[in-house]
Design goal:
With about 300 residues, the protein is mainly beta. The chain has one domain: Lipocalin (Beta Barrel). The protein is about 5% helix and about 65% strand. It has a ten-stranded antiparallel barrel.
Length: about 300
């Protein structure tokens, strides 16, 4: 009897030991950490900007006020290569200013202003402590067009600015005597420098040289009709040059919204031949300076 009980206990122990040997310790699943992004900042910038400016050109000897709105955009990938720019347009208000060719003076009124810039470049961090400083060289393209209308015609003779005297008024200043379009197509080579303080305040400076700037003009009815002639002429120039400067201060009011204000100056000139139908203009220049304000929304896509 004792022998049978011992065999039963031995068999039970063997079965229990075999069952214990079948237990497999499976490790608990855990999250695999993702590698950190090389550029954790927002990748997309979309915004709108208002630009008030004053400008002049060879066709407009005095300031023409400009009011324009722009659509602003920018995108950066994981390696901090970026594509940015803006497209805008508005109107010009010339008030009472003069344009002079062949001793005639007219009242000039601006009509339209169209422009756009596209840049491609690369960000390089110069400092990444409490203040973050980024240097961003780029290459791009700029288009800048102004349309003007002239009214009246007064023979000024050789004295610049001489008021109209009896007999010198050729076309009443209530009638249009001329219209013209001036456009520049330019290559941009430059760099942007940004410095961000306290994760909220950003200072930005943008400077570009225009090593190649082509001028195109379209002038109509520039010769007073009182002379019995009209002129409709288009003109193009060889490569000129210029530069464009911009500075901005920007405040991040939330993680996505930012508001900024700044200044901008554009200049372009050419010394090559341009046919305006009346006279050979070899030196032609345009400039525009103004202040702007913008609102920008920024977000990530990865």
């Amino acid at each position: 009897m004792l022998r049978v009980i011992g065999l039963v206990l031995l068999a039970s122990a063997c079965i229990a030991g075999g069952a214990h040997a079948q237990v497999v310790d499976v490790p608990r699943p855990y999250a695999i950490p993702l590698p950190p992004m090389s550029n954790p900042e927002p990748q997309w910038d979309l915004g709108i900007r208002y630009w008030y400016s004053e400008g002049s050109s060879t066709l407009a000897s005095e300031d023409l006020n400009g009011n324009s709105l722009e659509f602003v955009f920018g995108v950066r990938n994981e390696t901090r290569t970026f594509f940015k720019g803006f497209v805008g347009g508005g109107w010009l208000d010339g008030g009472s200013t003069d344009v002079r060719f062949m001793d005639f003076s007219t009242d000039l009124d601006g009509e339209g202003l169209v422009f756009g810039t596209m840049d491609v470049g690369q960000d390089f961090k110069l400092l990444d402590t409490g203040t973050r400083v980024v240097f961003s060289p780029f290459v791009g393209f700029n288009y800048w067009e102004e349309t003007l209308d002239a009214f009246g015609a007064c023979e000024t003779g050789s004295v610049d600015g001489l008021p109209c005297t009896p007999g010198s008024l050729l076309i009443p200043f209530s009638e249009q005597s001329a219209s013209g379009e001036v456009s520049w197509s330019s290559l941009r080579l430059g760099a942007e420098l940004t410095a961000k303080f306290w994760d909220r305040l950003t200072l930005r400076a943008d400077a570009a040289i225009l090593p190649v700037a082509y001028l195109s003009t379209d002038v109509r009815n520039l010769v007073p009709r009182a002379m019995g002639r009209t002129a409709e002429a288009t003109g193009d120039s060889g490569p000129g040059w210029g530069y464009q400067l911009e500075g901005e201060i920007r405040l991040d009011v939330t993680d996505h919204w930012a508001f900024g204000a700044g200044v901008r100056y554009w200049y372009a000139e050419t010394n090559s031949y341009t046919d305006l139908g009346l006279t050979d203009v070899r030196d032609f220049s345009s400039d525009r300076f103004g202040v702007f304000g913008n609102a920008t929304y920024r977000f990530n896509t990865y």
